[in-house]
Amino acid sequence: KSSVSVEARSHLVGLQNKLAHLRKVISNCHILVFPSLLQVCNCAMLVVGVVLNSLALFVFCRTSTRSSASVVYTINLAVADLLVALSLPARIALYHSGGSCVACSYVHTFSYFVNMYCSILFLTSICVDRYLAVVHAASTLHRWRTTGAAKCVSAGVWFIAVVVTYSFQVKLHTSHLPTHFYLTVLEFLLPMLAVVGFTVRVACFLSSRRGLIPRHSRARRSRAVRLLAAVLLVFTICFTPFHLRQVLVYFQVRLAGGSGGQRGAGHVLAYHLTVSLSSLNSCLDPVVYCFVTDSFRRMWRTRRRTTGGRDSNVSSGVCLAFRFLSRNHHIISAECVFLSRKGWKLKA
């Protein structure tokens, strides 16, 4: 039993040293207010993230009558953000235990990296979808915007994120800094370059004469640019600091001759700040892609009108039925057709 405990402790040390994750040195920082402020921020992100993403999922799933590629990606993004928010209690418990809760460490690390890279890839997928919708609306590339293709892409994103994260999770006792560096390049730098490239391409297309044809109205043009700019903003604020720090740690270790050494409070402080910023996307994504864009507001208004006007529609249909009830057989048949459109199962 003691050997199992020693092995678990060694895995935890590997987790703390190689991922710079939740080390006890944070309690020895001269900035004594930082741990308490970090807990407050995590609790706030937990509440806001759960509420906003749950509301977004409710509205998209209950009011979206016709599915599309953008709706599929947005729903998956909301699910990933909701899971990020739900993983915050494990992080809070890990902070409170000073890094001694091994189970909390594994749960939080696995869920954090899976959902962070899912969020990155789904944001990139939304950007690519907008690029195809605006630039290649009439070309053969438009077929990639089907719901079937979007579901396949979403399943692939979840599978890759889970498999890659799990492969690192079971090998935390060994050094994987080079692998983490390549993972940073693969799962952040390439999507970031794709988002920048597609944003520039869409902006050039919409500013050209071809982009000013009648089917691209001013509202649609501004909405597309606003969406892509929001993606860039989320990437810059939430994900760039964390991955930039990962790259700096990699090169620092390389310059030190392959030995990471002991990291001081500054490194731990930088790590926790960048992790908190990357988790902040679970609160920003619903605001950016659901509450700011016109599609969410239109779907929310449709939901309210449908709920509020349901009784009046049914009562008007019943009134029409009694009005024509005493007439001949042909009128009764027309009456039954009308009521069946309202959802009544009547036979002529």
TrEMBL record:
<dbReference type="GO" id="GO:0007200">
    <property type="term" value="P:phospholipase C-activating G protein-coupled receptor signaling pathway"/>
</dbReference>
<feature type="transmembrane region" description="Helical">
    <location>
        <begin position="149"/>
        <end position="168"/>
    </location>
</feature>
<keyword id="KW-0297">G-protein coupled receptor</keyword>
<dbReference type="GO" id="GO:0035025">
    <property type="term" value="P:positive regulation of Rho protein signal transduction"/>
</dbReference>
<keyword id="KW-0472">Membrane</keyword>
<feature type="transmembrane region" description="Helical">
    <location>
        <begin position="37"/>
        <end position="59"/>
    </location>
</feature>
<feature type="domain" description="G-protein coupled receptors family 1 profile">
    <location>
        <begin position="52"/>
        <end position="289"/>
    </location>
</feature>
<protein>
    <recommendedName>
        <fullName>G-protein coupled receptors family 1 profile domain-containing protein</fullName>
    </recommendedName>
</protein>
<feature type="transmembrane region" description="Helical">
    <location>
        <begin position="268"/>
        <end position="292"/>
    </location>
</feature>
<dbReference type="GO" id="GO:0004930">
    <property type="term" value="F:G protein-coupled receptor activity"/>
</dbReference>
<feature type="transmembrane region" description="Helical">
    <location>
        <begin position="110"/>
        <end position="128"/>
    </location>
</feature>
<keyword id="KW-0325">Glycoprotein</keyword>
<keyword id="KW-0807">Transducer</keyword>
<feature type="transmembrane region" description="Helical">
    <location>
        <begin position="188"/>
        <end position="206"/>
    </location>
</feature>
<dbReference type="Pfam" id="PF00001">
    <property type="entry name" value="7tm_1"/>
</dbReference>
<keyword id="KW-0812">Transmembrane</keyword>
<keyword id="KW-0675">Receptor</keyword>
<dbReference type="InterPro" id="IPR017452">
    <property type="entry name" value="GPCR_Rhodpsn_7TM"/>
</dbReference>
<feature type="transmembrane region" description="Helical">
    <location>
        <begin position="227"/>
        <end position="248"/>
    </location>
</feature>
<keyword id="KW-1133">Transmembrane helix</keyword>
<feature type="transmembrane region" description="Helical">
    <location>
        <begin position="71"/>
        <end position="90"/>
    </location>
</feature>
<dbReference type="GO" id="GO:0005886">
    <property type="term" value="C:plasma membrane"/>
</dbReference>
<comment type="similarity">
    <text>Belongs to the G-protein coupled receptor 1 family.</text>
</comment>
<dbReference type="InterPro" id="IPR000276">
    <property type="entry name" value="GPCR_Rhodpsn"/>
</dbReference>
